[in-house]
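User: If only I could read backbone structure tokens as easily as an amino acid sequence. Underneath my words sits a plain record pairing an amino acid chain with its backbone structure tokens. This is the protein in question:
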Amino acid sequence: MPVDLLSGISVALAPLLPWPVLGVLIGFALLVVLVAALRRARGTLLRLLAVLVLALALINPSLVQEKRDPIKDVAVVVVDESPSQAIGDRRARTERAAEQLIQRMKGFDDLEVRIARTGEGAEGGGAINETHLFDALNRAMADVPRRRMAGAVFITDGQVHDVPQVPSKLADIGPIHTLLTGDRNEGDRRIAIVQAPNYGIVGKPVELTIRIDDMPGRQSADAAVTLRQDGGPPGTIRVPVGQDVRVDLPIAHGGQNVLELEVEPAKQELTLANNRAAVVVNGVRDRLRVLLVSGEPHAGERTWRNLLKADPAVDLVHFTILRPPEKQDGTPIRELSLIAFPIRELFEVKLDEFDLIIFDRYRRRGVLPQMYLENIADYVRKGGALLETSGQGYASPLSLYRTPLGAILPAAPSGQTVDRPFLPTVTDVGRRHPVTAGLPGDRLDAPPTWGRWFHQVDVTPNGGTVVMQGAENRPLLVLDRVGKGRVAQLASDQIWLWSRGFEGGGPQAELLRRLAHWLMKEPELEENDLRAHVDGNRITVERRSLTPDPRAVTLTDPSDRTSTLQLADDRSGRAVATVTAGAPGIYRISDGERTTLAVVGAVNTPELADVRSTGDRMQPVAEATGGGIQWVTDSDTGPNPGVEVRRTQPDRSQTGSGWIGLRANGDYTVTGVTDVPLLPVGAVLALVFGGLLMAWRREGR
């Protein structure tokens, strides 16, 4: 059991007998001496001296001297590289303060300095939405025992979002100091999204709640807010400052609807990045209403019905014309049809309620008057969708092309039909169109793997885009835009052969699904479009075009800095480029013709919620660990700029005006031990026998 006397020197006790035995012997000897003392025997003191020397010899004390090598303490400098540090002169002050601090720390031989930056070692590759300095500190000192920690210094603007809820648990790290890089009495204005839905019904508005704050407390009466939806023309509203305000966002289409909001600058601004906000609301269709009119019963009729009924979001209204009006054979009326064809209700009263109208193998037979066909043409021009699948009747004088619909149909019949086997193929432009690009079974260097068809109407395109061809490279599938609406024409009624698996079948379900969604203007199937996808802090820019487009796109970041991206074309109608976002916010991408937005980070990212420099968040940590909070600007001037660094004892003050302290722990490792007995054997025997002899002689007188 060593007993410390001085640093590196101690006394060790190694008794020659067990302590209980040793205690009994020493106690008995002392009892004999006590009895002699009570009898006033001569030589009692000499006997006591001999007993004590003998007892000390049995205890066997020795002097232990350790050879110690000091262990360096560890101090961590955490440098904040979050986006808010790019405001004003903060970045320059941070680097200057870090350089000065590290140089002064390196002047201590017993101190190891480690530097941790918030941009290093982050997990997940996500966008920088928060400042996590304590995560960086924990990574830097992961392999260091707490007893070796001298402390830490944070160089930051004070907006730290991972401060522990119980700062007292950090006390064993040592003092944690904060050097603030901003200016005192800063002010800023921000716009925040208080409430926003993730989804909305197409055609119906959704309600947003926004709020504008002037910080710290300098509230203006109101402010102008500019709103822009999907990069369209801007609109302006006046919004009271410091209050929650409701704004209606119309959901114009399916997919992402992006509303961009920007509030005018205040008199005092740190950054305009938090003067902007964006809301992304996914538009979904409540129910898709499809009207399918089959001109006559045929084998492919069920293909359409099965496809449309398989989707629970589709309301299908299907009528098949079983008997033309001119046929008179005396059949009772009650046996002609289960349901009367409500022509006026469908094609006049409720026509605009349908999202898609399909004419399947229809020919003029007097069922639909010309007036109703004109209504359908107007319905398409106003934004509706029409799909015509041609049967034998399209090549006859009874063709739909010879009705008001002929003005919007993209292909005119020649009057001929092709009745021989052929393999439907995708055209070169069709391989760039999202409706037919990458269809399962299509191959660039060989015929497709799907089955043949046997009937096709010969048509001549007078507009639109031919994406598939059939016999002798005749147009098979033609897509066109008419006014605000869309039209598709399939010059054959034999796609049902694929659904029956003839010769291996084909991708009829995928083709018809894409075709219907393109007609109903699903954004993912736009053939000429610019869009951006966000995954964490990675922005993928994609441009679709029917012809290769060599133009670069311009990327504008939340700080209004611009850069150029060159997109790589993959020969399938897509040109793609990927860039890493350096900060959360709204990124604008434009190719000069189209513009899209990318929203990186949360709707209300904490990193931009309050960008003022403050020590309020770090004050509990400073109090719990004995650290201090100082402003870089206070020590950035003078003959010796920068904060002073001192090595302090653990029980002393760790901070003061213009200086910070780092705890001196005095830790070490023992590399050798020297053990020297305090009572040599010869000396002990001489003292014991000498004492006893002198006591006997004294007693004999």
